[in-house]
Design a protein that fits this description.
Helix content: 25-40%
Low-confidence stretches: none
Number of domains: 1
Distance between the termini: 23 Å
Structural class: alpha+beta
Order of helices and strands: EHHEHEE
Radius of gyration: 13 Å
Number of strands: 4
Shape: globular
Strand order of the largest sheet: 1-2-3-4
Strand content: 15-25%
Length: 72
């Protein structure tokens, strides 16, 4: 399991309230299985930067252990 600097990032896991839609919506099953759309398990929000929120969101990769920009 990756550990993150809590002073730099706000960590959102699947337990975050915004992920509730992904857990209870049956349409997500179609997106996941047929369309291949995936929701990340962990998202990081940079607390230090003053950029807009969509530019501050990062996604950690569990395979390569790098942190990717969420826009790509």
């Amino acid at each position: 399991m990756m550990t993150f600097n809590k002073n730099k990032y706000k960590v959102h896991t699947w337990k975050h309230w915004a992920m509730l839609l992904w857990l209870i919506n049956p349409g997500v099953v179609i997106s996941e299985l047929i369309l291949g759309q995936r929701a990340p398990i962990i998202t990081l929000e940079d607390k230090i930067s003053d950029k807009p929120k969509f530019e501050r969101i990062k996604i950690p990769c569990p395979q390569c252990q790098t942190i990717h920009d969420a826009r790509t």
